Amino acid sequence: MHCAEAGKALIKFNHCEKYIYSFSVPQCCPLCQQDLGSRKLEDAPVSIANPFTNGHQEKCSFHLRPTQGTFLSAHGVQRDGAGWEQSISIPLLQPHMYGMMEQWDKYLEDFSTSGTWLPHRYEEDHHNCYTYTLTFINCVLMAEGRQQLEKSEFTEKYIVPRTRLASKFITLYRAIREHGFYVTDCPQHEAQPPEGGGLC
Ligand SMILES: [Zn+2]
Fold first, then answer.
1. What global pTM score does this model have?
2. Long-range contact list for 79-87, CB < 8 A, 24+ apart?
3. C-alpha 14 – ligand 1 centre gap (Å)
4. Residue 135 alpha carbon to ligand 1 centre in Å
5. How many helices (H) and strands (E) does the chain have?
6. Among 81, 166, 170, 176, which lies 20 to 30 A Cα-Cα from 67?
7. How far from the centroid of its chain's Cα atoms is residue 103's Cα?
8. In this structure, is the dihedral angle defined by the CA atoms of residues 120, 123, 127 and 130, taken in order, positive or negative?
9. CB within 5 A of ion ligand 1: which residues?
10. In angstroms, what is the span from residue 53 Cα to ligand 1's centroid?
C-alpha cells in the first residue's frame, strides 16, 4: 500500500437512514442510487481522521505497530527502511510538561545504554519492547517524583483506547477497500477518540 493512501481519512455520510462510510463522497447513494448533490447541512459528510501517525515525526511518544507489515495492509507488505510511518501514537507527556522534552532524549539515551536492554537479554514475554517502554516511563515518573504505573494500568488507560479506535478504523478501511463503501445502522453510538493528553 502506498503511504499517501494509508494516511487518508475516511468519509462518513448519512443516507437511507444509515451511516455510509467511504473514501470520498460518491455522486449517488450506493444504496438507493439517489443523487447526493442536494443535501441538508446536517447531512453533510464528516471526515474520520486516520488514527495512525508517522512515528518518526512524533516526540516523546510510545508507538505501536504490527511486527510485520503495516496495520492497513493485511499481511506481509514489509516496508523498506524506517517502518514507523504508520503507527499508533500514544503521547507520553502532558502539555504542561513539555519542558521535559529537552531531557527526554538524554534520559532515553542513558536508559537504553544501561546494559539491561542488550539484545541477548530479550525475552518474548517478560523482557520485551513493552517492558522496555514501561520501565522507561516509570524512570521518568520517578525522576519527576511521581507515582509509578503498573503494567495493567498502562495498558488499560493508554494502550487499549487507542488500539480499539484503530481497530475500528481498520475494519472500516478494509471493507471500503473491498466493497467501495461500508454501511452501519443509524443512529449508532460513536466511540470518541481518547483525549490527547500524556501520562508523565
Ligand atoms: Zn440512499
1. 0.65
2. 82/56, 84/54, 84/55, 84/56, 85/3, 85/6, 85/54, 85/55, 85/56, 86/3, 86/6, 86/7, 86/52, 86/54, 87/52, 87/53, 87/54, 87/55, 87/63
3. 8
4. 52
5. 5, 7
6. 176
7. 25
8. positive
9. 15-16, 29, 31-32
10. 33
Quote the ligand 1 centre to 125 CA distance (angstroms): 50
Helix (H, G, I), strand (E, B) or coil at 8: coil
- Evaluated on CA atoms 170, 173, 178, 183, the torsion sign reads positive
The residue-averaged pLDDT of 4-29 equals 82
DSSP state at residue 56: G
Radius of gyration of the chain (CA): 21
Question: How many whole angstroms from 193 Cα to the centroid of ligand 1?
Answer: 28
pLDDT tens for 88-133 read: 777 777 666 666 777 777 777 777 777 666 666 666 666 677 788 8
Strand, coil or helix: 185: strand
- In the reported structure, the alpha carbon of residue 173 is separated from the centroid of ligand 1 by a whole-number distance in angstroms of 21
Written as one letter, the residue type at 186 is C
Task: For residue 14, give the H/E element and its range.
Answer: strand 10-15
